[in-house]
Every structure is written in structure tokens, then in C-alpha cells.
Amino acid sequence: MKSEKLKVKSEKQTIKAAIIILSDKGSIGQRQDGCGPVLSALLSRIDAEVVYYEILPDEKDLIKEKLKEISDKVDLILTSGGTGLSPRDVTPDATLEVIDKEIHGITQAIVSEGFKITNRAILSRAVAGVRNNTLIINLPGSPKAAVESLSVILDVIPHAVEKIKGSTEECAR
User: In which region does residue 33 sit, left (phi positive, over 0), alpha (psi from -120 to 50) or beta (all else)?
Assistant: First the structure.
């Protein structure tokens, strides 16, 4: 009789997520955040639970410190806002300074699909990468654009988180 290896599938854990909104006006109550609620709703489709939410001003050092602090506590950080060309748009710059590995494919997919909707998508400077065992993804600050962008990559996030956490399961389909 031929011996067979039994495949034991591990129970998938809920992804612990943080949402950080970058908005000068939002951080002082002059603008209501429309991105946090819609991003949270989308994350529920992949069994991700938002365990941290904050609105911060567009201050590079503050963003860097928050990313460092939270990356030790969650599996996924989504930032929204500060990814464009305005002088106060510093989210990608802060992210680049704290990540260990950049994941170009995530932002390339978002820009590619976004370009089908608006040619302005190519002006995004968003970054995606890994810090320690946490996936960090910059998204646009508009609720519509943030949802469109996250929708492009949503189904890949659980696999990315598993790999970042050290899964040795084969990737082949």
C-alpha cells in the first residue's frame, strides 16, 4: 500500500487591520472622514477586523512614528490620503522610510486599474510594503478612489499576510 501524506489545512486567522486617515482638516475636525467606514466594510469581505483607526495630519514624522508603533500590533495597515503631488502629500515618503520590503505589484495593479477609470491615477505616488510582519498599503484619500483601489487587490491580501507571517504553503494553483 502506498503511503500518502495527509494535508492538514490550518484554520485561517482573522486579519487584524488598522486604518490611518491622513488629512490635515480631518485631524482637527474640519472634514468628516468618508474613507474609514467604506474601507472597513470592504475588509470585512476577507475576514479582516479593524482594531485600530485614527485620523492624523499630513506630518511625515508623525506618520512614520505611527506606522512603526502600529506595525507591531496588526497584520495590515491601510493608509488613506497624502499619496498625490501636493506639497503636504507625504504618506508615501513616510512609508518608504519605515518598510523593509516594497511590493511594487500592489501599487502597479492599483494604478493600472485606476487608469481605466481616470488618467489621473498615474499621478499616484502610493507605496505598498512590509514592515516586520505587517503589510502596509497606501490608498488615495477620496472614498471612491480608496474603494476602487482596495477592490483591485482585496483578494490578494489574505495570501500576502500569510506569506509575510511565514507560511510555507505552496503558492501554485
Answer: beta
Question: Hey, is 102 helix, strand or coil?
Answer: strand
User: CATH code at 121?
Assistant: 3.40.980.10
Is 134 within the bounds of a domain?
A: yes
Q: What is the pLDDT of residue 9?
A: 44
**Is a pLDDT exceeding 80 seen at residue 8?**
no
Domain-embedded: residue 23: yes
Domain extent for 86: 15-164
**CA-wise closest residue to 159 among 151, 169, 144:** 169
> What residues contact 173, with CB distance under 8 A and at least 6 apart?
none
Do the beta carbons of residue 172 and residue 113 sit within 8 Å? no
